[in-house]
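Box S2. Input/output pair 1.
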Amino acid sequence: MDWDIAVGETRKRRDVHRVYGGQQQQGISTPARSPNILLFTDPDKGRKYGYDAFEGLRDDGIYSYTGEGRAGPQEMTRGNLAILNSPATGKALRLFRTRGTSATYIGEFVLGDPPYTEQQIQDEKHNPRRGFIFNLAPVEWASDQLPTYGGGALAQADVIPWTPPAYDPVSMPASFLEARVGSRIEFELQSYFGSWRERRGSILKRLRIPVNGSVIVPDFYDETLGEVIEAKKSPARGYVRTAIGQVLDYCNNARQAGYSASPAVLLPGRPDADLIDLCKSLGIALYVREMNAFIELTGKR
């Protein structure tokens, strides 16, 4: 069945299902006889179930989409598993923003890298639970129809609590194990580093900074030391280059928002010596894990 809804077009949701099928009461709809998976987002309704905390358009152009499951920890089943399996099944991810009974077609998306992360979200009674946050990369879309990351537009920068990311493996198709291992390494690194820093007396936060209609969120903001920290899963040159650019951008915007901000990069191992020298020349603290502790290679801290 050909797709005939134009980007930015609004229809009644029941009319979308009448043509393409699928469950009308689900945020993730999986029509049996259609090569599409229909994703619906309603920021106002989703806020009640903790969907807004990590959902929205990020500064890197990726749309973070919270998986299904309103009560208890989300499971990699049904609609969530359908999204995860979409590259293998060849099904297109079609995102809609709903308002009442109407649904505006945002566009077609594919899974990013990694396909998803796990975050701690709240249910309607404010109890913490596991949530799957899918990384959706656009093929064609109307980005101006989407809420910004973290629950809508921010009037000014703020800080929210830092919680260790989950990194324990969950059941999933074998084809995704490699991507899962990559994200697990970074999440484990963040969790160990955060716990290590807190034992040393630091107060860790997540800093949210509005920038040109979007919101940027570094991996850590050490409120005690005034340090913005970006973590990467590898000390390979490409990852270090990316981390340098990101953390300098974060710090520049954090300072403009009135926060004390010195840049730092967190890696699982030592990068090449010239990259250590580069970080030092740029005033970037470089932390690496060695056994059960972390050392700073650039003499900044």
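Box S3. Input/output pair 2.
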Amino acid sequence: MNNSRTFQEDDENDTLLFTKAEEYVLKNHPNPDRIGCPGPATLRAFVEAPRNVELAELNGLHIMRCAECTRDLIELRRQRTRDMQSPRIRLARSIIWNWKLAGIAACLSLIAFTWSALHQRERTEEVARLSSASNNSVSMLVDLSGDGVSRGTEASAPHPILLPSRLLNLHLILPYYSPSGTYRIFLTRDKSTSSLVASAEGTATADGPHLELHVEMNLNQVQAGNYLLGTQRLGDGAPYYYPVTIN
């Protein structure tokens, strides 16, 4: 409430608002190597006539995230104040300065609008990407309930497990008498930990005599070939392995 009341009492030039913005940039955006800074002439021209300086000349939003440029702008404004020596000059420049402040406010509004538009576009593209990935996912049922397998060995599956190189929503039916809990499901070239190519975790739940597990595995980048599908209950010993062919 105190901050709100303070800004409500700010002057018509929004001096407090600009001061707070400058303090934030000075504190949070140091740039001692002056990376991406516009030249001194550009900064001076921006102070003198902001409407005559294109956003591209300021390197876009750079001055909003550069403490060094902000210090230069503060000093340039101080120099302008010191140059106002006579009452006549003070009066004339006071009028001009009000217009410049309006121009700066308009420029900042443009920068804020541009940033908001870019941010919204990035969010839209990300949502579209995730939506596309979700729409391209494939649901697969992998029934392991009838596979005879010993821990740490490969199963002799009556039917080979075939999986596509896609984003998969896997519905696994685990072997009979499998304990409930959280399972790690992974795809590997062999039984060494260095050959892992994909993994996921999920909680297995009982459905009658079966223990079922739903996980999502991204196999988009997995090359076609023969692999092992590993299942391991977290906290248990060695995993179970099942031969898999990716096509």
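Caption for Box S3: Residues 87-135 form the longest helix (49 residues). Residues 2-133 form one domain.
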